[in-house]
Design goal:
Radius of gyration of chain B: 28 Å
Structural class of chain B: alpha+beta
Distance between the termini of chain B: 56 Å
Shape of chain A: globular
Number of helices of chain B: 9
Strand content of chain A: 5-15%
Largest sheet of chain B: 4 strands, mixed
Shape of chain B: flat
Number of strands of chain A: 3
Strand order of the largest sheet of chain B: 6-7-11-10
Oligomer: heterodimer
Structural class of chain A: mainly alpha
Radius of gyration of chain A: 16 Å
Distance between the termini of chain A: 50 Å
CATH superfamily of the largest domain in chain B: DnaJ domain
Number of helices of chain A: 5
CATH class of the largest domain in chain B: Mainly Alpha
CATH architecture of the largest domain in chain B: Orthogonal Bundle
Number of strands of chain B: 11
Helix content of chain B: 25-40%
Number of domains of chain B: 3
Chain lengths: 101, 336
Amino acid sequence: MSERIVMAIVEEELQFSLDELCRACHAREEQVRVWVDEGVLTPLGESATEWRFAGASLRRARLALTLTRELEINAPGVALVLDLMDEIEALKASLRRRSAR
Amino acid sequence: MKFHDYYSTLGVARDASDDDIKKAYRKLARKYHPDVSKEADAEARFKEIGEASEVLRDPEKRAAYDALGSRWQQEQAAGRPGGPDAEFRPPPGWDAGFEFSGRGDEAEDLFGGAGHSDFFEALFGRAARGAAPGARRPGMRMPGQDHHAKVLIDLEDAYRGAKRSISLQMPGLDAQGHGVLHERTLDITIPKGLREGQHLRLAGQGGPGLGDGPTGDLFLEIAFKPHRLYRVDGRDVLLDLPLAPWEAALGASVSAPTPDGDVELTIPPGSAAGRKLRLRGKGIPASSPGGTAGDLYVVLTIALPPSGSDAARRAYEAFKAAFDFDPRAGLKGATP
């Protein structure tokens, strides 16, 4: 028994509206608005009704939610943690490039 | 099933205050959070401390757990065989007199159904985690919940794309309100170029909607099964390639496996162990025509031939005689 399933790679093919992102990461709308204010997420579009979040926002928002709930980090703290994690990733990548021929 | 000592998991005393428990949890949660921790067993430890904190920070669950725990210890002390590793079964009726209000919070869905140990499930069950179904008011229309699951795929499938059947365990409630796992099988197409940490969205495969609301979506987070030969780093793939000492010293042409098939490699003379050779574009391929493919890094290691036979020992002796070589020359003068 197999059904036809419509599939997409989130990070490459999808964008989320505010509502879709909230549903996908199980966060409340106010929470996502706070993250946008703090620069955790940077959607395209002027007003919240026009916001389009890149696919990679799903992972970021889920991570932000975990940091908020499990470690009780406030929104500026979450923004800082995620920025530092991005920086660590970038440094690791440049280290890999350097050590290779 | 083993008895779980939640107090020792968090490293607190049995009479620890709420505040102490909270502090201990925070500290451990920071240390073992799978998103930030580099500890090998971070995810398992994080679940353990999460479970311990969930029980000890909820007055109802803590009281029930304490009552059960002291009974268990008395039985252990009274010489029940097995010691701390003994099989634990909750005695029948142990929870009589405790009413769980089932006050779940939103963190529930972050861990999904597999987040708790058998021990926890036996004591508190899934129903105790809250997630009480909302009252269905007539005419109410709500989209179904989006679900999340992690799946492991083979690295080779990301190179070529593949059709695979995956089975997922979905927590649900049976007719009596007990937690059960439903297994379901999905046929999915793994797109070429898929990377670890990316998500696949399966439209309409999540929770059912309320009323005539649409079904939610299912998000699958992708990870690779550990591979015997390759390590994966984003788009890049690493392979350890053993060389004989003479191949490393003199240079050689050797064959190396890649997920795409064998390649011929030219090893430059004088290659040290740890040297990385980059095969551009031989990592995980691009997922779209304009995209970037990853690279394959071949990390050289040097394998010594066994010195068991007389002939081999003579060869090593000749090797030694031929060089005036001190591999530790650079260490001299390091100690004051």
